[in-house]
Each structure stands twice: as structure tokens, then as C-alpha cells.
Amino acid sequence: MWHRILALIIKELWTNARDPKTRWVVLFSPPFLLLIYAFAITQDVSNVPIAIYNQDMGVESREFIGRLEGSSTFSKIEYLQSSAEIISTIESKSAAMVIQFGPDFSRKLGAGDDVNIQIILDGRRSNTAQILIGYVSQILESYNRERLAERGFSAPTKIVSRIWFNPNLKPIWSAVPSLFAVMTAIVGFMISALTIAREREMGTFEQLLVSPLKPLEILIGKTAPALLIAITSATAMLVLGTLVLDVPVRGSLALLYLSMIIYLASIIGIGLFISSLAATQQQAIVGLFVYMVPAVLISGYATPVENMPDFLQWVAETNPIRHFIVICKGVFLKDAPLSVVFQHSWPMALIAVVTLSSGAWLFRRRVS
Amino acid sequence: MTRMVGLTRKETLQVLRDPSTIMIAVILPLLLLFLFGYGVTFDPRSFNVGLVIEQPTAETGSFKASLENSRFFQVETSHDRRFFEQDLVAGRLNGIIILREDFARVVYRADTAPIQVIVDGSDPNTAYLVNNYVQLLWANWLEQVSISSGQSRGPPLASLEPQIWYNSQVSSKNYLVPGSVAITLTMIGALLTALVVAREWERGTMEALLATPVGITELIIGKIIPYFLLGLGSMVLSVITAILVFDVPFRGSFLLLLLTSSVFMLCSLGQGLLISTITRNQLVAAQVSILSAFLPAFYFSNFVFEIDSMPWALRMISYAVPARYFVSSLQTLFLSGDIWSVIGPDLIGLGLFAVLIFAITARVTRTTLD
Amino acid sequence: MKHDTALVTISGVSKLFENANILAISDLTSQIRPGRVTGLVGPDGAGKTTLLRLISGLLRPSEGKLEVCGFDPVKEPNSVHEVVAYMPQRFGLYDDLTVFENLNLYADLRSVTGPQRAATFERLLEFTGLKPFTKRLAGALSGGMKQKLGIACALIETPRLLLLDEPSVGVDPLSRRELWQMVYELVDQGIGVIWSTAYLDEAERCASVMLLNEGKLIYDGPPDALTDRVQGRAFLLSNIEGDRRSVLARTLEKTAILDGVIQGRNIRIVTAKGAITPLPSDLLAGEAAIMASTPPRFEDAFMDLMGGGQKQPSPFLKLQSTNAHQNEIAVEAMGLTRRFGDFTATDNISFEVKRGEIYGLIGPNGAGKSTTFKMLCGLLKPSEGFARVAGMDLQKAPSKARARLGYMAQKFSLYGDLSVSQNMDFFAGIYGLIGKKRREAIETLVSTFGLASYLETNAIMLPLGYKQRLALACAVLHEPDVLFLDEPTSGVDPLTRREFWSHINAMVGNGVTVVVTTHFLEEAEYCDRMALIYRGRMIAAGAPDELKASARSEDIPEPTLEDAFIALVEKDDRQREQT
Q1: Residue ranges of the alpha helices (H) in B81-192?
Q2: How many angstroms separate the CA atoms of C338 and C295, rounded?
Q3: CB C149 within 8 A of CB C91
Q4: Is residue C530 pLDDT above 60, yes or no?
Q5: What is the average pLDDT value for chain C, to the nearest integer?
Q6: CA distance B1 to chain A (A)
Q7: Exposure winner among A251, B263, B335, B355, fewest CB in 10 A?
Q8: CATH class of the domain at C228-313
Q9: Is B128 within 8 Å of A134 (Cβ atoms)?
Q10: Nearest by CB to B129, which of A39, A96, A134?
Q11: What is the radius of gyration, based on Cα positions, of chain B?
């Protein structure tokens, strides 16, 4: 039995390694893309142009503006001359935020009244808008605290903040673990989802079915090489992520690889399942997309899973990408213990068992 | 003319007969709309925090109540921080708030720190927001305590008065749903078209077509029209569903929407044709269009990720991604209206891309098999 | 021959594929005339398709010049496309469109509109007999019907020149006869037709033949003139004593014999030029054997021109020779019935194949032959009945039973992106061959099939004949007891076909059982017995000579197997009409 499986595995590896185009796409492009997209998926906001419209002639607003200019977050600041410009600036997206100081800003502050600073934000980028509000309010807060201190009022007690796992809040540290999980999935899908459909279109699948190979052997022979290739590609990404992008791996590599094998088994299981269902390569590709795009979207990759409605959170439990992202963040940054990894590994193992066995069942059914 | 009509009719019949067309033009966009409309959201939300009260007193009870009453937090309480640390590792908690043993004693003194916050830096955005909200609640709580105890509250303070234009409910579906139209049209134009043309080469039907009097322009146009219409049909379906089912506002004119969508559709059709002309093989065509059309449309379009925050080199790349211009126009048409200062430049960008890609395709396409 | 009547003038044309460095056409000069069928014949990879593509303007010549109906296909491709119709090897039909929609497309492409279109369709559907099937998807048509539709699409606008690339591959004898009738009608209207083929019996039906080999034109003229060179050298050896297959193998070793094939119980031989005709006793065919002169065929002349066929005895002959277990049943079909919904593809088919027998399954396209074949080798589950191979039920002990069968699929189904040696390693592996045994098996087959120089070539790049050789090699690596061959020599030239059968015959001598399907009835002559399957039922069974005898009539005193096939099918049609 093992000789037969070994022959299948060697064949699959050759198929992927012989064609230079496939070799490039499967083995080398994922690490390359990891490098590019790691910089693209930063969710903090920097370099966003903002504008200031100051109707106040006093000192207070100038001091406040000085603080804005001094902050590293706002590198491009435009100054507006009239309120009409506010509309056109926001409309045309030349600034994502306009900060407006009223004509009596300094006077009111001096007279002991509370004042408001108007900020106008572009709701077409409401996520950015939220974050910009946060930045400005932080600057405002320190401004207020210092004003209080200057007048001899004791500042309210402080909060001590500790940021664990990523103390400098480097966006790339958070981007790489989840991107690693997603890119590994894409590699696994690309290798597995077409294999059966392609063999069926070429007629070689019939050759396998008349040979003494049992469905289980075909299954192992298809899964193992895909696993090997995906792990190789993942290892390249891991090396790149840690050495070039300087992301730490604080947890146990053994745990990472162990859970990655389970993860890939579930991914390949899904791929083979789609492939067994499809009648043609085109259907397999389209089917893969219709599964993959939503699966990535509800994986917690771009938006938090806890944000989704309850029933979608349940659906997300059946999504291996969602579990592996937690494991990756855990192992890369948080030195996750076995218990945490296990919590997210057994659902993936279950998915793998279900999809792989139904894939094997479909091999025989879809012959004629 | 007859030839083009014939090719178009043939292609249309094939489009209508293939289940994968329906999958990509109807099911996928509705699935995306549903996810962006109901599930996947950037909206402000409540975070799960663990509150550690080392020594319960009246003060800690009062602060706990103000945390629980805020819309920002879902609070779990314990007396030992170790109880929560693993949850932070597993990502089930977004932060831990610790009220020290001597909280009641030192809370009103200046320059002390009776309260400590630990946030999960593996998601900087969340870390930032949790920290900010705790700061805010803390300041409010102190102020309330000082008012109720009749203390003076010091000199006047400045405060922020934010106005969010175009999207006052700050709902992320309002900009994600329009963005998903760009993803769908990219898939129809670049992926589906690449697949069907590559299939003609693989099955040998292209050889038969080339042996007839049909010219290359007729061939390309006849091929494009059905997918162009399919794309626009899918767009209209998405837009109507977005407005009627998902309550996304639409403030621009439909005519302009149709115009920008058409130009964008030309861009992705051109990409699809070019990919299939070069590869002539379904498998490779699919892989290339994923890498060169789909992923860039997802990452470099301001759809989910902010282009302005990316490094210089990536910002430059984004100018070569047609989805960038299209998403910008879509979001503007949906949320603000016919704003020419945005749509004009976008249309120019899209138009240039379309002209360029068709020029390249025409150069690369040959009417012989050599 | 007057120059002005030529439809196509080819002057000194060469075509070099630079990427692969293959000279596909080498300095070819010829003319093609209207109003007759010009046969483009030659072995695989001779350059037939390349020449057709050059004429239709789909390829540019590297050297030389073509003139097609007065136009230069390089400079005026559109003018050439207006008057030349081309049917590529793979039809160019859209499987997911109906017959009518396919016709409509080509009518649009050729700008045939209005009442003219309706009249053309009427005429073409009548002509091709496709009228009842206009609403059927092209993908659901049988091979013969696809070819007819392909021709109909090419004829929408009556062309001056019609190019047909291997139109008879995968087509049953009945449809093939109809195709030829169609083409003759066209020729009578003055159209020039080029018919490319590897089947040499078709060359005899052409008015003129261009014989290509390795890109060179080796004969250009009427077929009879070439056949004349083997006049008086063809004989039929009948009343043979003993095993005719081993007699043939021994016969071929003689230098006096150029070529030999099995014809039912007899052997047909062609002697070498200038050789003394051997006596039956020289050929060890037994005392009673009779050697009679028989009319030569174009194929004989072709073999003569190519220097004869396989002379070396197949290495399989040497393995082991067992004549024991002659009566053991190797393959058994019992009441095989398969339904797809309401449609009964095969209805109660039963037969037995003894060990060491060659059993043929023949029948028109879509008659249930492939369905039967698939049930026999376990690819399809019968709705009723069962099939046993080597005494085992394939549905019950699949893995064990499959280990004892070898399978060669109809269309090329090896891994195209793997090299020859990788393919062989793979198939050896999945059949459980390991270590020394595997190495030896592979070495033997590589030398047997002459694959040594192709070991590192990707299978997809092999010439057709080598693809088929590799496919057979992979099917017999594990020395199966039963060999299933699905149209093993479809589209293959006579040289390769002879080599093929010399190996198969040798294996059968060793006790291997062969089940084979074929459209090519010359090949069916190799079978010991065969079943004719038509409309899902087995309408006749027996040895080739018995089938031929059953078709003997006053009109046809000496029927070929093809005649018998057609007669039996027509008889069945009549019987069904009566009931």
C-alpha cells in the first residue's frame, strides 16, 4: 500500500515542480506577496492629509495648531481661508479631516468659558475618520491636562497603560501573522482545488480508478504532496517574516508547525471537496473563489470576528482560517501555551476529517 | 456587423448556460453584499475587557458600574489578573483593567496611578481604541465624582465636536458595499473572461474561428459585449440590493454610475483578454488573474486598506490599479453625490488604463497560430 | 497539367518551428486541383496538419510561397478565409451550443443571412442527416455526428476549397461511409477537397494522393500508380495449422517477407521486392496451408515505400510460453445492463472471454460499446448484472481485481506535464512494483517500445505514435492478466499499428487476455471473437470470418468486415422497424 501512495506523492510533486510557471506561482510568489501586502494592510492612519480652518486670531488656537503640526501623525496640513473651502476640500478628498477653530476661540477660553473645536470628517472613509478623531482627542487631552497644571490645579490621577505583545504598536507585527495564515491558505487552495478537476478533464483520473489504488490511498496521495508544498512555501514566508520584516516568533515553533499541519489538512480537504464536485476546471476555479473570498472576510483577518452578528460567529467557527489566525497571532507574538493552540486546533481537525472523507467518497461517485 | 452579432449571440448563450457564470455574477456579489451589510464591519463596537478588582470598595463598585454602563465595554470581573491573562493571549479579551488594592485610598490624589490598563498590541487599532475609551471613561468618572463632592473643577476646557459628513451613522457598510461592486466586476472582467478565452484556445475552437473571415477587432468586440453586459447587470443587481435591502444611501446620478462602471468594466475586460492571450491555458490564466487583478483590487483600492498609510512604493503601485479609481468614484456616488472633482480625475485614470490595456492586447494578439 | 487550373500552388515551402527546432515541412512543391479529393496521407508527425494550416493562412511559411485560389495567404488572409473552409482536427464546435446554434454562429461569421440562410440550413441538415438533432447540444453528439456537423459548419458558404483534418478519426464505419458520400457530392459540384488521414484504405478513395513523411513529399499522384509497384506481391495464406499469431511472427522474421497482417483466420502477406515467393511450408503454416495471390492495396505500397514494417519479433515473445489453462474464463459479462435515467445505454449484454483470447467490441458511435467497456473494467457500476475479471467481481474486490488488469484509455490520458520516465515510474509505483522488479520492467519496456531517446521528454510533447506506445507500456508494466484497450490505434499510422499488434499478439501468446474496442475494422481482424453492439444490444457475436460469412450475398460475394458490419446494422434496423 505504501509503495502505491509513495508513487502518487512523487508524481504530484513532479507535476508541480516541472512546470516553471506553476513552480513560480505556487512556491515563490506567496513569500513575495507577503512582503508587499504586509506593508499594505497596516490599519493605522498616517500620511493622511488634513486641513485647518482657523478663524481665531488669538494665541490659544495657534498653540493648539502647533501641537498638531508637531505630531508625527499629521504630515500634510493644508490651511484654508474660507468656510466655503471646507466643503470643496472634503468633497474632493484633498483632506480627510478639517479642524475648525471659531472666531472667539481664544477669547472664550480666556474668559473662562468652555469652547468647542469643530472637526469635520469624510464619512466615505469612516474607519479612517474614527481613528483621526482618536488622534485629535489624544492631543486635546494632553493640551487640557497641561493647561490645568499650569494654573496650579492638580491633574487628575493618571492611568498607567501597558501594551503587551507589541509594545511599540508596530503595524507590521500584527499584519504578518494574519497574512501568513491567509497566504498559506491560498497556497493550499491553489494546489488542491484544481488537481482532481484537472485530472478528470485530462482523463488521467480514470487511469487512477482502474489501478489497484483505493480511494483512501488516492486521498493520501493527493493530500500529502499538497501539504509538503504548502509547508515549504509557508516556511519561506516564515523566514522572510522573521528575518526581513523582523517579526518575532515568541512561542514554540513545534506548536506552530503542528497546528499548521492540521490547518493545511482542513484547507486541502476543502479544496479537494470543491474539486471533486466540479465538472470542469473552470467550475473548480469559480467554486474556489466563491468559497475563499467570504472565508477570508469572516476570518478576522480584516475585521474582528467579535464584531459580527452571533450567527456569523457560529459560521466562522467552521472556518479554519479564523482559527489559524488566532494561533498565529498567539505563537508569533504572545508565546501562546498549548492549551490555547489546542482550543483552536481541534475544530480544524474536525473540519479536516469531514471534508477529506467526503472528498474521498465523491471520488468514486463522480466517475460517470 | 453580422459576424459580430453572431459572435455575441454565441457568447451570450454560453454565458447563460454555464452555472459558473451565475455563481460569479449573481451569487458571489449577493454573498459579498450580505457579509458587508450584516457581518463584516469596522463600526465602533464594544470590546471585551477583564476588570480586576483587587480590593472591592464603594469606589471600585462605582467605577465598575460606569464601565458597565458605557456602550464601549463588555466587562468581566475578577480579583486576580492571572485569571485573565490567558484570555488575552487567546484573543478572547481585548484588554485588562486593573484597580489596585489601594484604589480607594489613592484615587483622588494627584500623580498616583491607582488604575492600570493592559491592552493586546497584536491588534494595534483595537489596542489604541480600548486605551482611549478607558481614558475617556476615567476622566468622566473623576469629573462626576468631583461634581458630586462639590469640588471646583478648574479652568475651562476645550472639547471636540466631530461632524462626520456623508455617513453620519458612521456605518462601514455604507462604504464597503459600494466597494464590493468593484471586486465583483474585477472577477467577471479579469477572471471569467480570461478563463473563457483560454478555454477557446485549449479546446481548439479558436483555430476554427481564425480560419473564418472574422477579423481580430470583431473577435474581440464580439467576445467582450456579453461579459460587459453581464458585468453591468451584476452591478445593477448589487446597487439595487444595496439600496433596497441594505439601506445604503445613493446620492449621485445613475447615469454617472453607469458611465464609471462601463469604463471600469472595459479595464478589467482588457486585463482578462490580455491574460488569456498570453497564457492560452485555463490553470495559469486563473492563477495570473488572481495575482495580478483580484488581489491588487482588494488591497490597493482604499476598499478596506488605507492607501495613504502605505509606503511610497506601494502608493505608486496603487496608481496602476484601476479599482483604485473605481472604488473612489463609487463611494463618492453612493455617499456624497456627483462630485466632479473626484469623479473627473477618476474617469481620466480609468480611461487611460483602458486605452493602454487594449493597445497592448491588440499588439500581442495575433491572427495566426505561430 | 495546366497551371491555371490549380486551386493551390505550393512552391518550395518550408516551415520551421523555431522554439522546438522542428522542421515540420521541408521544401515542398505541389499543386492541388478543384473538383476532386486530394488525400493528404502519411505517418504521425509527417506535417499534415502543418500543411493544412499553411494553406488556410493560420501559419506563415518560413520559406517558399503559397497561392490559394489566387490569393497569398500571408498577405491576404481574409480573402483566403472567404473562399477556403477549414475543419480542424478538433472540429471547432462549441460543445455547450446546440447543433442549430453552432450552424447559426458560422452563418453569421460568413455573413449568410435572410432567406439564403434558411435555404442553406435546410440543404445542409438534409445533406448531413442532422435534421432530427438540431436542438441537441454538440457535446452530446456521437463522434460521427460531430464530424458531420463540423463539415456542415464549414460548408455554410460553398467554398472553393475544403480542408478536412483527419475527419475519420473516432468515426464508426457507417458514418465514415456517409462522410465519403458527402465529400463526393461536393467534389461533383467542383469544389476541391483535401482530406488528411493516417488510414491508408482511405487513400484509395482519393483521386490524387500526397504522401508525406517527416515533412517531405515522397509521393504525389494517383493512388493506383503507387499501388502498382507491389503488383503480384500480395498473398493470402489460409487454412493455417496451429496458432496464426505465432505463424505471423515467424513469417515476419523472413527477409523475403515485407509485411504481414492477420485477417480473421488467415494471414495477408506482402513479399519483398525481387524476393522469391515462399511456399506455405517455409512459413511453418502446416501441410494443408494454401497461399493464394490477392489484389494489392495502397497500404501495401506504403509499407513498401517505408521499407517494411516491424521485423523484430516482440520481446514479449520470449517471456514465458504457456498454453495451459486454455479454457479458463478470464472475463465474464453476465446480463450487463446500464440505465441513465430513462435511457438504457446497454441492455442485458452477456459474453465470456477465455484466457489468451483477443475479444473485440465493435459498434457505431454511441451504441453502448464504451458503456460496456467501462463496466467491464469497473469504471461504471452496472444497473443490473455483473462483470468478472480473473474470476473476481470488480464491485466486490475492486483493488485486488484491478491489480490484475491493464487499461489503455481511448484519448491520451497520461500525465502530459511529466516526462516519459516519470510516467513509467508512477504507473509502476501505483501497481506496487518496487526495487529491482520495477527497474527491470521499465528497462524492458523502454527498449521494447524504443522510448530510450524520449525518456526526459514531457509526455504531451511526444508524437502521437509514441504517446500510444507509452500508454501501452504503462498499461502492461505490471504484467496484467487481462488487458483492456479502448481504441488503441485511433489515428495511428500503419507502421505503428503493426508494431502495436506484434506486441499484443506476443502477450496473448503468453496467456494474456485482451479486450479491445475499435472503429477501425482492419484492426478488428486481429480478434479471435467479437461482439457487435448496436443500440445498447449485442446484435451479433462470433469470429471475424463468421461475421463476414453472415453478410455474404450475391451483391457482395467476398465481404470485408466493414461490409459485414454495415449489413448487420442495417438488418437490425429493418427488424426493429417491423416489430
Answers
A1: 82-90, 103-106, 124-148, 173-186
A2: 44
A3: yes
A4: yes
A5: 87
A6: 30
A7: B355
A8: alpha beta
A9: yes
A10: A134
A11: 28
Q: Is A182 exposed, middle or buried (0-12, 13-18, 19+ CB in 10 A)?
A: buried
CATH 3.30.70 domain range(s) in chain C: 228-313
Q: Judge: C94–B205 Cβ closer than 8 Å, yes or no.
A: yes
Neighbour count for residue A28 (Cβ, 10 Å): 12
Q: Which CATH number covers residue B76?
A: 3.40.1710.10
Instruction: Kindly report the number of other CB atoms within 10 A of residue A270's CB atom.
Output: 27
How far is the CA of B63 from the CAs of B47, B54, B111, in angstroms?
A: 17, 13, 19
8-state DSSP, C98:
B
Instruction: Name the residue of chain C whose CA is nearest to A364's CA.
Output: C379
> Is B370 inside a domain boundary?
no
Range of the structural domain that residue B284 is part of:
7-38+169-364
- Cβ of B299 within 8 Å of Cβ of A140? The answer is no
Q: Which of A22, A206, A365 to mutate to test binding with chain C, by most C CBs within 10 Å of its CB? A: A206
Q: Cell 496451429 sits at which residue?
A: C242
Q: Which of C56, C93, C109 sits opposite B3 (nearest CB)?
A: C109
The ipTM value here is 0.85
Residue with cell 479529393: C37
Q: C75-81 contacts: CB < 8 A, separation 24 or more?
A: C77/B367, C77/B368, C78/B213, C78/B215, C80/C56, C81/B211, C81/B212, C81/B213, C81/B214, C81/C56, C81/C57
Find the farthest-apart pair of alpha carbons in chain C and give their distance in angstroms, rounded.
73
B278 vs A: CB within 8 A: no
Q: Chains contacting A with at least 3 CB pairs below 8 Å? A: B, C
Of C380, C402, C434, the CB nearest to A368: C380
CA distance C60 to C13: 10
Considering only CB atoms, which chain C residues are within 8 Å of B13?
96-97, 101
Query: C343 CB contacts (<8 Å, ≥6 apart)?
Result: none
State the DSSP H helix or E strand holding residue A326, giving kind and residue range, or none if neither.
helix A320-333
Closest CA to C38 of C153, C144, C159, C187: C187
Would you say residue B155 lies in a domain? no
Query: Which positions 466-505 of C are in contact with A (Cβ < 8 Å)?
Result: 484
Q: Measure CA A41 to chain center.
A: 7
pLDDT tens digits, B71-122: 888 899 988 888 888 888 888 898 999 988 888 887 777 667 788 899 988 8
Q: Which of A174-188, C349-363, C388-402, C403-417 has the lowest mean pLDDT?
A: C388-402
